[in-house]
Amino acid sequence: ETENSVLNQLDLDRFFELNDQAYDLEAGTAYNQGKTRIIYLPEDAISGIHASLKEETGPAWKIILKNCGMIWGKKVAANLARELQLIFSVTQGDITAKECLELLERYFAEHGWGKVTFDVSKAFSHGFIHVKFDNSIFVSVLSDENDFVDPMIAGILTSLFADLSGKDLDAIEIACAARGAPFCEFVVSSAE
């Protein structure tokens, strides 16, 4: 890691600082310092959304949550880019790919989704990125499912990496802690 890297020069603790949130209790709103409205989503809400989707759509709940994740991922990418510019006067083009992955790892952890790590060692040789996801919120909340439970995360990863690469990509969960794996795993590659 070079000392001259842009990300190392930024105070990411300040970027993710919870104390810099603007609360308006009368309006019932909270915004981070990047002017993005934030909410605190309890596990019960995720559980209720899942139960409702499963009851109404059967196995299509996974497709719906993946599509939700893809829409959410586009918003996350846009908000991160806007917040980097607003808070630090830095554009995505100013940081390296490695730094961008570090920012995403921190983003997932700071927002309570779980601990994500990206392995890009096979990106050029085999055309995919391997993603390891520990402590997935969905594994925790959807503990009654004995199936892959992270389609929303797959959707978020799809959109984030499509935005970063400018290519049509897809993310697929290949292992899940809900099915007995030690952690959840995804591959991100071209849609084909």
Structure explained in plain terms:
It is built from eight helices and six strands. The chain is an alpha+beta fold and 192 residues long. The strands form two sheets. The protein has a four-stranded antiparallel β-sheet with strand order 3-4-6-5. A hairpin with a 4-residue loop joins β1 (22-24) and β2 (29-31). α4 (61-88) packs across α8.
Strands of the largest sheet, in order across it?
Answer: 3-4-6-5
Work out the oligomeric state of the chains in this entry.
Answer: single chain
Q: For the terminal residues, how far apart are their CA atoms?
A: 34 Å
On the 0 to 100 scale, the average pLDDT is 86
What's the helix-strand series? HHEEHHHEHEHHEE
Helicity level, as a percent range? Answer: 40-55%
User: What's the helix count?
Assistant: 8
Rg measurement, Å: 17 Å
**Morphology:** globular
Number of strands: 6
β content, as a range?
A: 15-25%
Q: What structural class do helix, strand and pairing data support?
A: alpha+beta
The major β-sheet equals: 4 strands, antiparallel
Low-confidence stretches: none
Write a compact overview of the structure shown:
The protein has 192 residues and is α+β, with helices and mostly antiparallel strands. The protein is built from eight helices and six strands, in the order ααββαααβαβααββ. It has helices at residues 6-9, 12-15, 43-57, 61-88, 97-110, 123-126, 137-141, 151-165; strands at 22-24, 29-31, 115-119, 128-134, 169-175, 184-190.
